[in-house]
Amino acid sequence: MNSILLINKKIVFLFAFLLFYSLNITAQDTQSNFWDHVRFGGGLGLNFGDGFFSATVAPSAIYEFDNNFSLGLGLNATFNNQKNAYKSTILGGSVVALYNVIREVQLSAEFEQLNVNRRYNTNIDLPTDNYWIPALYLGAGYRSRNVTLGIRYDVLYDTKKSIYADPWAPFVRFYF
Q1: Which N-terminal residues, if any, form the signal peptide (predicted)?
Q2: Which domains does the chain have, with CATH numbers?
Q3: What's the mean pLDDT in 129-148?
């Protein structure tokens, strides 16, 4: 388990190093302003039903190297509560690469590392879960201006630990 966590930390460090190294070279090679190429976006989620509540905040930023390729970082904070069952807090970050094959078609790769802290509220004495879970999403979407609608697949999906019900997930991505 510790070796997996160490490998995941090395991967995140490598992505961050490559991102900042690339940004530095690009900023030096061009006469344009760095901030002219930065786009901010992310997602918000709210879900509630019969005794269930979930809220997510996921800001992100990308750097557009050109019209086809972007690289960025994101954060994720989610709170879930199932009445009389459990509460969970999920915090983490991600590195995302976007490639526009043509203006309307966008391919993506996103590495996400989340810390899951789940507390059970049942009569049965269940232990508290606290673990790290990695995800590597490969996706494709239809892009129209600042918004991309698509589907992604988690190639590292773990049926026992993943916070998602399925490795396939639709997404809406936006950057301004």
Answers
A1: 1-27
A2: 2-174 (2.40.160)
A3: 95
